[in-house]
Fold this sequence. Notes:
It is built from 4 helices and 6 strands; from the N terminus they run H-H-E-H-E-E-H-E-E-E. With 145 residues, it is α+β, with helices and mostly antiparallel strands. Strand 5 (120-124) and strand 6 (129-134) form a beta hairpin.
Amino acid sequence: MTDLFDQIAALTRSAALSEDERAMQLGTVAALHGIDGDRVYWWAGLSRPPRRMPYEDGSAGLALLNEVLTALPLEEVVLVATDEEPAPWPMWVLGRDELIELLEALPFFEYFVASPDGRTLVFDTHHNELLIASLDPSGAVSRSD
């Protein structure tokens, strides 16, 4: 995870969240979505079934992520780089466009994106699908194929 953290830190203008900020953000997300915080794959522990959006390959996944985030009323998102490892995970607050540019510049890793209030989550899993969990009606995005 150190290599990934270093790569992200080198490519973004934003500093990683502090340990206290991470703990607060993840605690909020876990409580809102009924997730056991000790899980590695938080997407597998959602209390309600997420919307599933499969994709073929990495570039299609990023295009789909961009489409999903564009449909949500979010200026900023929280990137949580899980990379299939247990927490603690590095986290950054990024603009939507900055996030997509960052992910395009990196090899694939498992992550999720959260709205700053934690009510909407978008997971990119190792199964080549985005999983969207939202407590808000605006999180009910649909695919425009």
